[in-house]
Amino acid sequence: MADSSEETKASMPRPESKAAPSDGKSPRPEVNAAFHPSGRMPHGRLTQFLRGLAFAAYFAFCCVMIAITQLVGAPLYFVNREWYYAYMAMTKRSFALTMIVMTQIWGPTTIRISGDESVADQIKATADGGVQFSFPERMVLIANHQIYTDWLYLWWIGYVNRPGMDGHLYIILKESLRFIPLIGMGMMFYGFIFMSRKMATDQPRLAHRIRKLSQKMTDPKGKPYMSPMWLLLFPEGTNLSSNGRKKSAQWAEKNGIKDVEHVMLPRSTGIFFCLNELKGTVEYLYDCTVAYEGIPRGKYGEEIFGLASTYFQGRPPKSVNFYWRRFRMADIPLDDQKKFDAWLREEWYKKDQLMEKYLTTERFPAMAGAKQPFIETTVRTKYPWEILQVFTVVGICGLLWNSMRKLATAVAKVSKP
């Protein structure tokens, strides 16, 4: 079905709109509100409906398979805790693969990566056009929160890390997400941390979960070790929006501090608590500044790159841009809440400056000390057959059940007089 004339007009730039500068140095002109940064909508309503149907069928089927896999392995919790956590890490990796393939097929995008000198030797391009990270097995990761799918792209970073960390990512989430059918149950199995945003209520729960992530274990030879862990936090608390920016400005005015323009001021209480709980078991805090190509100055990603635009309409972000920095935990003022609050706010001012540079030049600063200023790749799996891992346990259980059923039938026939 062809697009309606209204859709076509809405997707095309007005005559006065100009293309972004190709030199990456001149200020980018404002984009007309009717113009989508990913271009004209390539699919009509029927195609969008079919894409949405295929997307829903794929995602639901994979989630059901993962949920069954989790239930099959749940009794391991009462047998051996280390086996249980390793098994659930495997199912967490299955969900990461589900999302990567989902993005690869329905919402393909370019990932453009750079960072300062603290991470330059930990991010390398691969010969096949991919990227490999060498971040540590235990770290805290913080980022600005642009759109709802930020965590999806950051989870993919764990997938391309060596060692692979997509099975060991832990996210702090809103309490309401716990009640999403299937997915909520899955996130509880994953050990994700749900918060009500009331610190008096959340602190005991948070302390319990963080301490579990800090427990020392012993290998078969009796040698102690720490479980792999990437703890993902969004200090802004929610994704950037008009309402969020307004609240950030009001909070800045109320507290007599300078506001930011392109992000929201971070709240330090939760992250201060987490870092203090993890102190001594984590050496580094990694910070990622995230920007999406084409979001005009003064506009917000949630208004442009929603679920429908990204996966149904065929208009995902043309590029997702990451700028990485690393901080040694020993250098962060964790002994005083006020000092930490000032430190975190200062880092967010720097993040705001990075966003200003991106809006002006359409690029973050180049990779420090590297021949290649940016590493560009796409969200994809290393091998096309990896997605089959999602169905492995259920498939094996199905084969065993079928074999046992046939054996029982055969025994019953033999035992008949």
Describe this structure in words.
With 417 residues, the protein is of the alpha/beta class. The chain has a single domain, classed as 3-Layer(aba) Sandwich (Glycerol-3-phosphate (1)-acyltransferase), CATH 3.40.1130. 42% of the residues lie in helices and 15% in strands. An eight-stranded mixed sheet has the order 6-5-9-4-10-11-1-12, sandwiched between helices. A two-stranded antiparallel sheet has the order 2-3. The protein is globular. Residues 1-33 have low confidence and may be disordered.
Distinctive features:
single chain, Acyltransf_C, 12 strands, 417 residues, two-stranded antiparallel sheet, alpha/beta, disordered N terminus, membrane, Plipid/glycerol_acylTrfase, 15% strand, transmembrane, Glycerol-3-phosphate (1)-acyltransferase
What characteristic shape results from the CA principal axes?
globular
The number of distinct β-strands equals 12
Helical amount: 40-55%
Strand order of the largest sheet: 6-5-9-4-10-11-1-12
Instruction: Summarize the main sheet.
Output: 8 strands, mixed
Coarse structural class: alpha/beta
Catalogue the unreliable spans. Answer: 1-33
Count of domain modules = 1
How far is it from the N-terminal to the C-terminal residue, by CA?
66 Å
The average pLDDT score comes to 88
The CATH architecture can be given as 3-Layer(aba) Sandwich
SS field, number of helical segments: 11
Text of the CATH class? Alpha Beta
Taken as a percent bin, the fraction of beta residues is 5-15%
* Alpha carbon gyration radius: 24 Å
At CATH level 3, the topology is: Glycerol-3-phosphate (1)-acyltransferase
H and E order = HHHEEEEHEHEHEEEHHEHEHEH
InterPro entries: Acyltransf_C, Plipid/glycerol_acylTrfase
Pfam families: Acyltransf_C, Acyltransferase
Region (Disordered): 1-39
Protein name: 1-acylglycerol-3-phosphate acyltransferase
